[in-house]
Amino acid sequence: PFEVLVIGGGPAGAAASVYTARKGFSTGIAAERFGGQVLDTMGIENFISVPYTEGPKLAAQLEAHVGEYDIDVMNLQTAKQLIPARQPGGMHEVVFENGASLKARSIILSTGARWRNLGVPGEFEYRNRGVAYCPHCDGPLFKGKRVAVIGGGNSGVEAAIDLANIVGHVTLVEFDSKLRADQVLQDKLRSLANVDILVSAQTTEITGDGERVNGLVYKNRESGEEKTVELEGVFVQIGLVPNTEWLKESGLELSKFGEIMIDEKAATNLPGIFAAGDCTTVPYKQIIIAMGEGSKAALSAFDYLIRTQPA
Ligand code: FAD
Fold it and tell me: What distance separates the 2 farthest-apart alpha carbons in the chain?
């Protein structure tokens, strides 16, 4: 058994494990894919103090930093069940897909999230070559250019407002007959001169020249007509899904979006179980925030372990 078991090896989990190991706790970290979403990222320009890096490089540095400590790294391990301790100070248990199970007095959940894909031709092929998911991350790469935002919920409309300030022109594409974002956001969006809004528009393809995105094809769901918009970038904003499906039966409190509910100390509703990063209710999903949250969860686990008698 470990004193602290971290589930998830992205920025949040890596930070958490380094912090608990530095407190002298026996620490294990189990991850389906060490590195997490960072592995799918190309240029990273907002990891403060590092003006430019690339996803695979940052993932290797996370692994190297974890490797500096006596941390038991278990890569390619998918957790499928959490069995919380029956009393405070007791052992929690995590069961993995391969049948193995691990126990620890404190658990830090950092299983991250995944962007919902459109699932149209061109989306995968041009990922990081015009197809983007994070306006905070990639907006400045499209300075002065034409982009589309797919999705008319709050995140899509916020992204369109954000991008309109940076890029040349934004086309917001919504599948439904009306936008679903809060009225105040819709009003703001409609006040912007360089934004077009398309509703009842089903994106059917993202096109490119073999190198980069050059357009988007959509079908007007009322007339059935197909149209093309010429542009250089497409931001897909149809939802960020937390990797928490496996926790639904555990007694852990989740939000209506499936995010793990945490307080300002990264504590969940279950004593000794903490959570950090994109899988939680923390606002804004970013690398630097996930690392801060992972560190915070680790310090809270430390606090819990020194105050709680082993049961
Ligand atoms: P993740 O990175 O999602 O890591 C989750 C970890 O949990 C992984 O190791 C995963 O394999 C593991 N896991 C999941 N389920 C299980 C399970 N059941 N059992 C065991 N392990 C599991 N942010 C920025 O700040 N700047 C950027 O430029 C930027 N660009 C991005 C570009 C792209 C294409 C994407 C997808 C994201 C980008 N982000 C960027 C967002 C950033 O990557 C995330 O906010 C950050 O990685 C979240 O860290 P995390 O540790 O919470 O989760």
Answer: 68
Residue closest to 105 by CA, chosen among 118, 120, 113, 94: 94
From the CA of 87, how far away is ligand 1's center (Å)? Answer: 32
Residue-wise pLDDT for 86-133, tens only, equals: 998 999 999 999 999 999 999 999 999 999 999 999 999 999 999 999
Asked if the ipTM is above 0.90, the reply is yes
Q: Does 12 appear as a known binding residue?
A: yes
Find residue 104's DSSP bridge partners: 2, 92
pLDDT in tens, 8-53: 999 999 999 999 999 999 999 999 999 999 998 889 999 999 999 9
Site residues for ligand 1, CB cut-off 6 Å: 7-13, 30-34, 36-38, 40-41, 44, 46, 77-79, 110-113, 115, 133-134, 137, 243, 246, 277-278, 285-288, 290
- The structure's pTM equals 0.93
Q: Give residue 42's pLDDT.
A: 85
Centre of ligand 1 to C-alpha 42, Å, is 13
Q: What angle do CA 28, 34, 39 make, to 5 degrees?
A: 160
